[in-house]
Amino acid sequence: MSQSDYLAPDAEEALDVQDDLGPLSQFRHGAQDRRLLELARLDAGLAANVDFDDKPWGLLYRALIDSLYASPDDFQLIYPAQPWDWKPTQAGFISGAQFDFCATVPQWSAIAAFVSSGDTVHQAYQQCLNVAQTQTEYPSLRRHLIDAEDELVAATNQYTLAATSAASVHATRGGEDAPSFSQWLGSRDGRPYQNRIVAAEVPMNQAQAHYAALVAQCDHAELGAAQRRCGDEAHRVRLADLDLLRMPKVPDWRIAEHAEHWTERARRGEAPAGATLGFSNREAPYDFSQTWAGRQTKVRRLFWQLRIDDRWERIDEFEYDHQLELSLDFRAVDRIAIAPGDWYDGDFARSLIDGPFAHGYSAFGDERSQAVFGEKGFFGLVKRSMYVGYKPSFAIRTTTSTFRRFGYPFQAATGLRIGPFTFEAEGGSRAAGWCADPATRTFTGTTTSEVPMIIGVGVGELPNA
Q1: Cα distance between the two ends of the chain
Q2: CA-CA distance, 230 to 198, in Å (whole number)?
Q3: pLDDT of 162-201, one tens digit each?
Q4: Hey, what's the torsion of the CAs at 398, 400, 402, 404, to 10 degrees?
Q5: Cα–Cα distance for residue pair 285/296, rounded to 1 Å
Q6: Residue 2 pLDDT > 90, yes or no?
Q7: Among residues of the chain, what percentage have pLDDT more than 90?
Q8: Which of 217, 251, 230, 223 is nearest to 351 (CA)?
Q9: In terms of domain of life, where is this protein from (predicted)?
Q10: C-alpha 193 chain-centroid distance
Q11: 306 close to 413: Cβ distance less than 8 angstroms
C-alpha cells in the first residue's frame, strides 16, 4: 500500500461511525438474558412447590466443602447430580454427553442447575477474540475488517437463533431424565433442530475464517495467532454419537481419567477413598457471601422427594422436622481435572484482562459499554474440574412422629432424592436392602446404581482461570 492509503484522523472517525452502525451481536449482548431464561424455565417446573425451604441446600453445600476438601472459592454444587457414564472414544472423537458437560458455561451461583444446552465456552472465547481491538494503519484493510465483522455478526446471529430455539424446545420437552442437548439433537425429536443448527453453523464458520484471516494481517500478531488457533481444524473433534456424525467438528475437551476406567477402579476398591458427610436441621443457615459467587440464587429443586409408582412426591415430614439428622457416605470420591483443548490460549486470554476492546465493550462493563467478563459479561466462567462420587449410602434420623408417618411410604419407595442425589432402589426398598429401624428412628439405604455421579464442579472466573 502507498503512503496515501494510510488512515487519516478524519477517516478513522468516519470508520468508527460505521462500526457503530453495524448489526448488534445477539450472542454477546444477550448472554445474561439467556441465563435468566434458563432460570425462568426451571421456575415454571417448580410452580406447584414455591413454598419449600431451601435451607438444607446450604447445609449440604457446607458439608460437602468440609468433607471433599473443596473450597468455597471455586466449588459449585450442581443439581441434579449428573451420571458419569461417558463412553471412551477413539482419538479425534468425543461423546456428546462429555462435550455438553465440559463445554457448557456454568451458572453464576454456588448452587446451580445443570443445563446442557447453555452457552458454550468456545463460543464465548471466540466472541472475546472478536471484540479484542484490532489496529491497522491501512484504510482498505480496516474497511474490509468492518464489512467482514458485519457479515460475521449477521451469520452468528442466525446460528444463535437456531441454537437458542433448539435449547428452548429441549428444555420444555426433556425433563431431568432427558438426554443431554447434543444427544437430543441426534434423536428423532431433535433432528430437525440439528439440521437448522448445521445450516446456520456452516456460513458462520466461513465468515469467522474470513474475519480471522483479515485480523492476521493487522498489527496485533498475538491476536491473529489466537484467532488461527481457535479456528484450527486440528484442535477439533467429531461427536462420537452415530446420530451426530454429520454435525461439524467441535472444539476438544479433555478429562484426566475416563469414567469407565475410574468406575472399575472404584468397584475394586482402588479408587480414592470415600467420604462421609452430613448435617442437622438444627444448624444455622450457610452464609453464601463467603463463596466465589458472593451470594446464592434461589434453588429450583425440592430437597426431599420419594418415588412411588414411578412418580416423585414431596416429603413434607422431613422439611418440617427440626430434629432431623442426615448422614451420607460415598464409597469413593475424586476430583477429576477438566481442560479445554489446544484451541484455547489461556495466556492470551489472561492478557485481555484490561483490554483493549472494540468500541462499545470493556472488560467488566459500565453504563456505556457491554461487559466481556464477569457476571454481566458473555465470557465469565469455565469448568476446571468435577467432583465425582460412587455408591452413596444414606442414614436419616428423625423424630418419633416423623418416623411413624414416613414408615409406610418408605417401604413402598423405588427411589429417594436427597438434594441433587438420586438413590435408586431397584425392585423396591426391601429388595434393595433399605431399612427403617424403629429403635433408632433411622432410615438407611444404599443406591443400587453402579454409575458414578458428578456432584459438583470447580469453576474458574475468566479470563484468569
Answers
A1: 41
A2: 19
A3: 999 999 999 887 667 788 999 999 999 999 999 999 999 9
A4: 130
A5: 12
A6: no
A7: 82
A8: 223
A9: Bacteria
A10: 21
A11: yes
